[in-house]
Amino acid sequence: MSHFIADDGAKIHVKISGEGSPLVMLHGWTSSHQEWFPFLGELQKQHQVFRWDARGHGGHALGDAAAPTAERMARDLANLLDHYQLDRVSAVGHSMGALTLWQYIRDFGTERLSRLCFIDQSPKLMTDETWSHGIYGDFDETKAGEMMGWLHEDFAEAVLKLTAFGLNERAREKYLAGASGWEKSRQALRAQAPAPLIDCWASLTAADYRDVLARIDVPSMLVYGGQSNFYSLETARYVASRIPDALLHIYDGTDHSPHQWQRERFARELLAFLNP
Predict the structure, then answer these.
(1) Among 32, 39, 114, 202, which lies 20 to 30 A Cα-Cα from 25?
(2) Residue 255 to residue 262: CA distance in whole angstroms
(3) Distances in Å between the alpha carbon of 180 and those of 30, 55, 157, 254, 276?
(4) DSSP annotation of 138
């Protein structure tokens, strides 16, 4: 695994494979570069693929470096492009990765970007009386505060409950039944250092990128789960209506990770979008 040093001294780990035009893939909260492994076989045939572990993720000690806020991760992305001397970059962001890209565009613009893919994310996670396209449609300040308390009490279980007790009924049933997949996720979450991930969550839930969407002037593809744990189809349509000429795909029957449930379709549609 390669790495580069961010401008605050943090070591950011990156897996690099394949040949061709650069493709940067940004994983979701509490995940790692391994999220993208199932798609490498196809993607690296046409692209040099960069898969990082965002700071505070992937089991890498953060040390004294800055917390993984949205702003810091966007700067890390700029540092990555500088370090590897990348331009005309295509990028894919799932969940937190999408927020990182939106923050990057706010701070640095789209000059070095070529094509973008955003997977199952809202530009504003918290809801209020004027905004219902965030988490669950009703994740207001009170619920956000409760979630923060749960994260401090039992980080792993809080993350699982956030996923289980949302809009996807099947996820709730599997969690309550103690399905093996949930236990595997529980153990993986317990192996991670919670403090930087909690700081990260606080930053993500405080963010609002609705103003950024209209500024995206490069081709964009959106992929949303038809039964996302967190977002309704109205959220997907809102994002699609705000990003100029965005291409929207709804993966029926899939949750917050639609690309994992329909892997062949995602790889096929992503490559067709990246290489028209």
Answers:
(1) 202
(2) 11
(3) 19, 28, 15, 19, 40
(4) T
pLDDT in the model for residue 179? 95
Number of separate domains in the chain: 1
Whether 38 contacts 87, CB under 8 Å: no
Instruction: State which amino acid sits at residue 135.
Output: I
Q: For the CA atoms of the chain, what is the radius of gyration?
A: 17
Q: Is 36 helix (H, G, I), strand (E, B) or coil?
A: helix
Average pLDDT, the chain: 97
> Residue 248 and residue 246: Cα distance in Å, rounded?
6
Question: Sign of the CA dihedral 228, 229, 233, 236?
Answer: negative
Q: Which domain holds residue 175?
A: 2-274
First-residue to last-residue Cα distance in the chain: 31
pTM for the whole structure? 0.97
Measured between alpha carbons, how far is 218 from 121 in angstroms, rounded to an integer? 18
For residues 266 and 249, give the distance between their C-alpha atoms in angstroms, rounded to a whole number.
10
Residue 134 backbone dihedrals phi, psi, to 5 degrees: -90, -160
Using pLDDT thresholds of 50, 70 and 90, give the confidence band for residue 14: very high
Quick: pLDDT tens for 145-174: 999 999 999 999 999 999 999 999 999 999
pLDDT tier for residue 63 given thresholds of 50, 70 and 90: confident
| Nearest alpha carbon to residue 269 among 33, 14, 42 | 42
Identify the CATH number of the domain in which residue 123 sits.
3.40.50.1820
Determine the average pLDDT of the residues in 5-27: 97
Buried b / exposed e along 240-254 (16+ C-beta atoms within 10 A): bebbeebebbbbeeb
C-alpha dihedral over 211, 57, 9, 204, to 10 degrees? 20
Q: What is the dihedral of CA 166, 168, 172, 177, to 10 degrees?
A: -160
Q: Maximum CA pair distance of the chain?
A: 49
